[in-house]
Amino acid sequence: MSTEDLTLEKNTDGKISLENDLHICALAENHDNEYSLIYEKPHTLLDIDMHYCPGCAHSLVHKLIMEAVEELGIQEKTIGIAPVGCAVFAYHYMNIDMQEAAHGRATAVATGVKRLMPDKYVFTYQGDGDLAAIGIAETIHTINRGENIMIVFINNAVYGMTSGQMAPTSLVGMKTTTSPFGRDPAVYGYPIKVSELISQLPGSFYVSRHTVNKNTSVRKAKKAIVNALNYQKLNKGTCFIEIIGNCPSNWKMTPIEANNFIDEVMVKTFPLGDIKVPKAEDLIPLNQNGDK
Ligand SMILES: Cc1ncc(C[n+]2csc(CCOP(=O)(O)OP(=O)(O)O)c2C)c(N)n1
Ligand code: SF4
Ligand SMILES: [Mg+2]
């Protein structure tokens, strides 16, 4: 939407109202009392209400992926695979071609889609129950085959959708509905560090772990998603972006408490940052051509 499409009015209290406020916009007033658009929700994200709980990371990660798709100009060439879990309706929100997969099978579906249409940008979007429990075999074998896709892994340490059961990534001591006294490794094992695990596979090309609990982390997470989509042009293997999400509802915290919990507790088990980065020589075609 251009600024011309917006009807701007200043209320008596000096605040701006947007009459045709179709997108989330941020406007700045300049010296001539004119307004310029400085932020707008991506058009690749459909303008409908999301079903997520307030403060949930899923909505923000959806937006980051769609911003990356829009900025790279690949909306018509991108196919997303939606999971089973709280993000089951991702296809309602992302204005790209999408396919739903059965619980845990997203990377198997993505494999088929990418092999049939290798010129498309293909990604999966999966929670920790989906990717690391029921789908762990598909995850490992897909990455071991080096399928040329991006996997976005939302690790909120619980089965959010089904009311907070223990996930493979639940922290030691974490209370969930199926570990009411806290996760005891002697009974339930240890949290699986999926990113570290799959970074050992030769088929993984780029593995990076982020969170979206504050502005700086959001920017880093988006950069990683942009990198992963760009690397798909190289056909050198699987890019895996883990996002430490939150689940305020099942963690029984406010959104702010949940975001603080990530910094204070979650990152001790799941440290943030790049885990596997491409070698410089692998990136040369990208640097030379820009686009393939
Ligand atoms: C084959 C199958 N088994 C189990 C379920 C029930 N189920 C739905 S969502 C879910 C867990 C989702 O957790 P996660 O992937 O972590 O996503 P979140 O909701 O936390 O984002 C389960 C077990 C199902 N739908 N299908
Ligand atoms: S249950 Fe948890 S993961 Fe699901 S939408 Fe609510 S906060 Fe998000
Ligand atoms: Mg989960």
Report the helical percentage. 25-40%
Poorly predicted runs: 1-9, 16-22
CATH architecture of the largest domain: 3-Layer(aba) Sandwich
Q: What is the tally of helical segments?
A: 11
Average of per-residue pLDDT values: 92
Q: What is the number of strand segments?
A: 13
Rg, rounded, reads 20 Å
Write the element-wise H/E pattern from the N-terminal end onward.
EEEEHEHEHEHHEEEHHEHEHHEH
Strand content: 15-25%
Summarize the main sheet. 7 strands, mixed
The CATH homologous superfamily of the largest domain is termed Thiamin diphosphate (ThDP)-binding fold, Pyr/PP domains
Care to describe what's here?
With 292 residues, this protein is an alpha/beta fold. The chain folds into 2 domains: 3-40, no CATH class; 57-289, Rossmann fold (3-Layer(aba) Sandwich). 34% of the residues lie in helices and 21% in strands. The strands form 4 sheets. It has a 7-stranded mixed beta sheet with strand order 6-5-7-8-12-11-13, sandwiched between helices. Strands 1-2 form a two-stranded antiparallel ribbon. Strands 3-4 form a two-stranded antiparallel ribbon. Strand 11, helix 8 (215-231) and strand 12 (238-244) form a beta-alpha-beta unit. The longest helix has 17 residues, at 215-231. The protein starts with 7 loop residues before the first strand and ends with a helix. The model is unreliable at 1-9 and 16-22 (pLDDT under 50). Bound molecules: thiamine diphosphate, iron/sulfur cluster and magnesium ion. The site of iron/sulfur cluster (SF4) has 12 residues, from helix 9.
